[in-house]
Amino acid sequence: MTPTALVPTAPAPTAPVPTARVEPQVPAALRVAAGWSWRLLIIGAAIYVILMAVGRIRIVVIPVIAGLLISALIRPVALVLRRHSVPRLASSFLTVIGFLIIVVGVGVGVGFNAANEFPSLADQVSNGVEQVRDYLQDGPLHLSQKQLDDLTNTITQTLANNRGRLASGVLSGATVAAEVVTGLLLMLFSTFFFVHDGDRIWGWIVTRFPPDSEARVRGAGREAWSTLTGYVRGTMIVALVDAAGITIGLLVVGVPLVAPLALLTFLGGFIPIVGATVAGGAAVLVTLVSNGWVPALVILAVAVGVQQVESHLLQPLVMRRAVRLHPLAIVISLSAGGVLAGIPGAIAAVPFVAVVNRVAGYLARSGKQSAACDG
Questions:
Q1: Ramachandran region of residue 52, left (φ > 0), alpha (ψ -120 to 50) or beta?
Q2: 86 Ramachandran zone, left/alpha/beta (phi>0; psi -120 to 50)
Q3: Three-state SS at 236
Q4: Three-class secondary structure of residue 143 per DSSP
Q5: Dist. CA 227–CA 68, nearest whole Å
Q6: I want to staple 322 with a disulfide (CB 3.0 to 4.6 A). Which of 6, 193, 215, 231 is the partner?
Q7: Cβ neighbours, 10 Å, residue 335
Q8: Contact 363/216 with Cβ under 8 angstroms?
């Protein structure tokens, strides 16, 4: 036996299985699903990080978005003044100050109206409570006096037990007063500079993109601004019509607090679907407490009629060019905006989704056109 025969030989290395042999073993549907999955995971993680960052600085983001929405409404006034030889700075100041005067004037008028009518409303509420008490005692329920007293004592005790929570809520509300003032000031500054320098700001942003992409970015910006201004103006018209309809119904019936309820209806018009329902419910509730069942049913019919006119006439006629979203998309965007940022988020959610939808459609069309030209 030779010495070399005693030396153990190393096993031959196993050749790696080529990837080309593995891929055919994976079904095509699974490969496509895996490709979609990791891409969607990355996109979802990016969106989550962005939302967390926005949540951290919401005190800055919300006023800036509010300023953008307001500037989309009032900037045409500044453009008209500039066309009549008013300097840019002066036209911007006049537009913003005029808007502030209107808002403050409406707020003061509604406040005086509410202050004047609250005493009579308090008496009507007391009478309504007595009527409810008599109904509970003499109606189908036939509650005894002892049961009514126990119910009243329970409600009173519950309020007393939660007095500390109510006080802490008031104190916590006082602590955020500075944040509210800061947000209002930031909103005013944002509104002014969007009105004054909005085109210059957008021009500077466009120049940050590669030269061969500037044309598409400018076009996307025009589409976004057109959608935003169309949405804000259309919503303003719809909200005014809703408020006018509810106001006429309240005046005919003779309900107190007409001005606050009209303002609530107008503001509710900026929250699609939900806002009009809440405002109508408030009007019906006030009418029920102050005037009784029959006038409340009349106001309910008026509110339903106004909403039907809004849904089937005003929305398709006024908003069809600005917002082309499915009702399900509107509800989902409202819910997401409300969860993320409360009422401001619900107000800004629909225009944001409408702008994204319009810009995405424009970029897709322009991309196909450029590909066809290259081909």
A1: alpha
A2: beta
A3: helix
A4: coil
A5: 13
A6: 231
A7: 14
A8: yes
Encoded tokens for 9 = 């030989």
| Residues 319/234, Cβ–Cβ less than 8 Å | yes
Chain Cα centroid distance, residue 226: 19
How far apart CA 77 and CA 225 sit, in angstroms, is 16
**Other C-beta atoms lying within 10 Å of the C-beta of residue 275:** 23
Task: Judge contact between 259 and 267, C-beta under 8 A.
Answer: no
Please, are residues 286 and 343 in contact by the beta-carbon 8 Å criterion? no
Question: Hey, what are 25's tokens?
Answer: 């073993």
3-class SS of residue 347? helix
Domain boundaries, the chain: 34-86, 106-164, 202-375
Q: What angle do CA 306, 308, 313 make, to 5 degrees?
A: 100
User: Rounded to an integer, what distance in angstroms lies between the CA atom of residue 364 and that of residue 356?
Assistant: 12
Q: Tens digit of pLDDT for each residue in 283-329?
A: 888 888 777 788 888 989 998 888 888 777 777 677 666 666 777 78
Q: What is the pTM of this model?
A: 0.72
- Of the pLDDT bands very low, low, confident and very high (cuts 50, 70, 90), residue 78 is very high
Residue 361 corresponds to which amino acid? G
Retrieve residue 70's tokens.
């307001």
Q: Say which residue the tokens 């409810």 belong to.
A: 132
Other beta carbons within 10 Å of 323: 23
The whole-angstrom separation of Cα 165 and Cα 171 is 10
Q: Give the whole-angstrom CA distance, residue 259 versus residue 287.
A: 14
Please give the residue that has the higher pLDDT: either 316 or 22. 316
| Residue 55: both structure tokens together | 């949540």
Tell me if 217 sits within 8 A of 363, measured CB to CB.
Answer: no
* Measured distance CA(186)–CA(63) in Å, rounded: 6
Report the C-alpha gap between 158 and 163 in whole angstroms: 9
Nearest to 235 by CA among 312, 319, 313: 319
Separation of CA 326 from chain center: 16
∠ CA 92-94-96, rounded to 5°: 70
